[in-house]
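HOLO CASE FILE
Compound: iron/sulfur cluster
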Amino acid sequence: MQEARGKKQKAVDKTRETDRIQRSAFHIPHSAFRNSLLVWFRANARDLPWRTDRTPYRVWLSEMMLQQTQVETVIPYFERFLVRFPTIDDLAAAPIGAVLKLWEGLGYYARARNLHKAAQVIVNERHGEWPRSVEGLMTLPGIGRYTAGAIASLAFDVAAPVLDGNVIRVLCRVFAIERDPKEAQVREELWQLAGALLPLSQRGRGGRGVRGGGGAGEFNEALMELGALICTPRNPKCAVCPLAKYCAAKKRNLQDRLPLKTKRKPLSHFDVTAAVIRKNGRLLIAQRPFGGRLGGLWEFPGGKVESGETLPQCLRREIKEELGVRIKVGEPITSIEHAYTHFKITLHAFECELVSGQPQALQVQDFKWVRMSELEKYAFARTDLRIIESLKKRSTKNTKGH
Ligand code: SF4
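Model generated. Tokens follow.
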């Protein structure tokens, strides 16, 4: 009984909070709010390579690269990518291996595979014509609500909202939203808020979301820039914030507590092995199946240690399952710690010798025997790049020792 009453009370509280947020969104003078933000943005926006020549291709590429990745990391990748694939036709015509190679080290490789697939859809099935609506853009591989909103508003100046980590933080603070933005209902309310604040009509006076255009694209970008430069996760710079006079968190001194965070469970940990198998001066590398995690990338074959297994037992089993050969496990090369979004691993790499059998692609996409000097032609995940670094160091040491 008590529990049921508690649940009911929580539901009432949530509805009240939703009402309060909606009311406060209406109480903000929208055009003065936008104006303060845009004046600040026009004076303070960073010069970033994707902010010039706003073609849908450049906006899309930068938005895909910026997901989960810092601006400074993205800049050289973005520039290299455009040198190699200056147009969407060049990208669509390229082999996936070349795309993954340019993405090497950037992580979240599904983005690169989706980019390639979507380029082929636009070029081959839509004759180079981009969908302009959020709904149309979301039919393309790898384009979700955020990316669709960003392309529609920044490239086509459609009045579509965006909601990334920066916008969530700014909105949670400006409207003092004291609920977890990871909750689906809160997330939806934030989308509604981001939409309610947009300039009402499609303006496009300055063309595709450029500074000075005053349209949805410029507004979205300004809100994201404010989150990146002023309303930062820690120590927000409220004293110089153009939205300070509208900000409920600042008024109530809540800015350091918002957005609310639920405690993350500690990440699970796995031990993983990798075999550096040598034959006649060549190394055996395997390509991960396209459908899975890190699909299409190359690696030193191996896998996850099962309960009760030693590292060498794990390697012998994995290599038999994946490539159908027997190996002898030799000395350890290196151990690498790495954290992914949902788990972390320790990767143990070993020197190995082929004992019997001819490799076959049983549970891998492909395999190759390559010289050390040829490794750079293939795209590897960050962990395997570190194994390659260790191999190079060892071979330099050995050469010096002779
Ligand atoms: S006043 Fe402070 S908390 Fe509010 S939006 Fe500006 S920087 Fe963020």
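CASE NOTES: The radius of gyration is 26 Å. The longest strand covers residues 326-339.
CLOSED: yes
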